[in-house]
Write a structure and sequence with these properties.
mainly alpha, 21 helices
Length: about 500
C-alpha cells in the first residue's frame, strides 16, 4: 500500500520533520504533566458535590491556568530562542522529580504549579514552531499529529495519577511525566530551532493584547460563576476585573491604530475559533470524566475494563489527526470545523440516549461509535481551528496564537467539569427524592444516596455499597444515571451550538 501524499509531504523536508518530531514529543510531555488541581480528580469532585463554594475556587483555578498559558505564549514570542523550550522542559523534569518523593505540603504544590506553568510555555513554543514550519493543508496534517499526541497524553495523565486509588501514591504519574519531558528535552536540543521572524509590534503593545485576551477569559469565567446557587463575590470580581482589563487594553489600542494594523488580525474567524474552542473543550471533557465511573458503578464493568472502555476515543484521536488534512483538501474550513464540532455533540447526545435505555446500556458495543465520534470530532475540529488561529494572526506571534488556541480549550474543559458536576449532583438528588418521597424511611434513603454519590471513586465506595440495602443502591444508581444523562445532554447541546457558531462566523471565506 502506498502512503498517501498528504502524509509524506509532512515528513519530506528534513528540517520540518525534525521540528515535527521535537514538537510532538514536547506536546506529549505537556499532556502527561499531572494536574493535581484538576476539577476532574476525585477529591475535587467530592468538594463540588457537597460544597457550592468549591465551584468558585475551581473556576478561579481554571481562569488562572488559562491566563498562565496566555502568558507562556507571550514569553515564547518575546524571547523566541530555543532555550525557552529547553528550560521549560527542564523545569518539567525537575518539578516532576521533586513530586515523586514529596507528595504533600508547600513544596509539592509549588512544584506542581511550576510544572503546569512551564508546560504552558513549552506548549506555546512547540505548537508555534510546528505551525510556522508548515503552510496550508500540510500545516493542518502536522497539527493533527501534534494534537493527537497531546490528546493521548492528556487522556493518560488522570488514570496514571489515580491508578492506585485517588488518595494513594502518585509517583507513577510523575515518573512517566519526567521520562517524557526528558526525551522531549533531548529532541528539542537536537532538532528545534529558534522561532523565526520578529515581533510585529512593541512588547508593551503586545502585552496589552495579552491583557485583553486574559480579560475575556476572566469575563467568561465570571459569567459562568454567576449561574447557579453559589457565593457571588468571586464571580463579580472576575466580571469586574475582566471588563476593566478590556477597557484598559481597548483604550491603549485606540491610541495605537497603526500597530493594530501591523498585527494582521482577522477578528471574525479568530473569534469563531476561540469560541468553538471553549465549546469543544466543554463537550469532549464531560464524557471522558463521567463514563469510566458509569462503566464501573451503574453498569458494573469492573475497575480495569472501565478505564479500557475509553479506548475507542483514544484510537479515534490518532486516526483523525492525519485525516483532517484530507478533509481540508476537499471541503472548506468552516465545513470541516463545524462537522467536527457537530460530531462531538452528536456523540454526547447519543451517549445520553443509550444510558436512558437499559437494553442498550447493557451492551458495551453501543458505546463504541459515540466515543469514536467524540474523539475524531475533537481532533478534526481542533486541528482546523488551530490552523485558522495561526492563519488569522501575525506570523510574528506563533507562541501567542498557540497559547490563545489552547487556553480556550483548557478553559472550556475545566468549566465543563465544574458545570456538569453541579448539574449531575442536582439532577441525581432530585431523582432520588422523587423515587423515595412515598416511602416511610425517605429521608434516611436520601441521605445514604447522597453519601454514596459523594463517595464515588473513593476507597470507601465499595464498602459503602456493600453495606447499603438493595433499595438504597437501586435509587442511587437510577439517580446517578439520570444525572449523567443530563450532563451529557447539556454538553451535546453546547457542542451543537458551537458547530452553528462556527458555520455562521467563518462564512464562505478560507481564512
Amino acid at each position: 500500500m502506498k502512503v498517501p501524499e498528504f502524509i509524506t509531504d509532512v515528513f519530506k523536508d528534513p528540517q520540518q520533520r525534525g521540528i515535527l518530531i521535537a514538537g510532538t514529543l514536547s506536546i506529549l510531555a505537556v499532556g502527561l504533566v499531572p494536574r493535581a488541581f484538576s476539577p476532574g480528580l476525585v477529591d475535587a469532585q467530592q468538594a463540588l458535590k457537597t460544597q457550592p463554594q468549591a465551584e468558585n475556587l475551581l473556576l478561579l483555578l481554571s481562569f488562572v491556568t488559562a491566563a498562565v498559558t496566555i502568558l507562556g505564549g507571550l514569553v515564547a514570542d518575546f524571547l523566541r530562542r530555543r532555550s525557552v523550550l529547553v528550560v521549560s522542559l527542564a523545569l518539567m523534569v525537575g518539578a516532576g522529580a521533586v513530586s515523586i518523593f514529596i507528595t504533600d505540603g508547600v513544596i509539592y504544590y509549588a512544584a506542581t504549579f511550576i510544572a503546569v506553568a512551564a508546560a504552558g510555555v513549552a506548549l506555546a513554543y512547540a505548537i508555534g514552531s510546528v505551525a510556522v514550519a508548515y503552510d496550508g493543508e500540510t500545516r493542518a496534517t502536522a497539527l493533527g499529529i501534534v494534537y493527537a499526541a497531546f490528546g493521548a497524553g492528556s487522556a493518560a495523565a488522570t488514570p496514571l495519577l489515580t491508578i492506585f486509588g485517588p488518595f494513594g501514591p502518585r509517583w507513577q504519574a510523575y515518573l512517566v511525566s519526567v521520562l517524557a519531558a526528558a526525551i522531549a528535552l533531548w529532541a528539542a536540543r537536537r532538532w528545534m530551532p529558534m522561532l523565526p521572524g520578529v515581533l510585529p509590534a512593541p512588547r508593551r503593545f503586545l502585552g496589552s493584547v495579552g491583557l485583553w485576551v486574559i480579560s475575556i477569559l476572566a469575563l467568561i469565567s465570571g459569567i459562568v460563576g454567576l449561574v447557579g446557587d453559589r457565593p457571588r463575590v468571586l464571580p463579580v470580581l472576575l466580571v469586574g476585573g475582566g471588563i476593566a482589563g478590556m477597557l484598559i487594553a481597548s483604550a491603549y489600542a485606540r491610541r495605537s491604530r497603526e500597530l493594530v494594523r501591523k498585527l494582521q488580525l482577522d477578528p471574525r474567524p479568530l473569534a469563531a475559533a476561540v469560541a468553538v474552542g471553549v465549546t469543544v473543550g466543554f463537550a469532549q471533557m464531560v464524557p471522558l470524566m463521567l463514563l469510566p465511573v458509569v462503566f464501573q458503578f451503574p453498569l458494573a464493568y469492573g475497575a480495569l475494563f472501565s478505564l479500557l472502555a475509553i479506548a475507542p476515543f483514544a484510537i479515534a484521536l490518532f486516526v483523525a489527526g492525519p485525516v483532517s488534512g484530507i478533509m481540508l483538501q476537499r471541503f472548506r474550513p468552516r465545513e470541516v470545523m463545524a462537522s467536527g464540532t457537530l460530531a462531538i455533540g452528536v456523540g454526547n447526545i447519543a451517549l445520553a440516549i443509550i444510558l436512558s435505555c437499559a437494553e442498550l446500556a447493557g451492551n458495551y458495543l453501543w458505546f463504541i461509535l459515540p466515543l469514536v465520534f467524540i474523539g475524531a470530532g475533537f481532533v478534526i475540529s481542533t486541528t482546523v481551528r488551530t490552523a485558522i488561529v495561526f492563519a488569522s494572526t501575525s506570523r510574528g506571534m506563533p507562541g501567542s496564537a498557540a497559547a490563545l488556541n489552547q487556553a480556550s480549550v483548557d478553559l472550556g474543559s475545566r468549566i465543563g467539569i465544574v458545570v456538569s458536576t453541579a448539574v449531575l449532583a442536582g439532577v441525581a438528588m432530585r431523582t432520588v427524592t422523587r423515587l423515595t418521597e412515598d416511602l416511610p424511611d425517605a429521608q434516611p434513603l436520601v441521605d445514604t444516596a447522597q453519601r454514596i454519590l459523594v463517595a464515588l471513586g473513593t476507597p470507601g465506595f465499595i464498602e459503602m455499597i456493600g453495606e447499603a440495602s438493595i433499595t438504597q443502591t437501586s435509587v442511587t444508581r437510577t439517580g446517578y444515571i439520570d444525572g449523567v444523562q443530563a450532563a451529557l445532554l447539556l454538553s451535546g447541546i453546547v457542542a451543537v451550538g458551537g458547530a452553528i457558531l462556527a458555520w455562521i462566523l467563518i462564512g464562505k471565506r478560507d481564512p
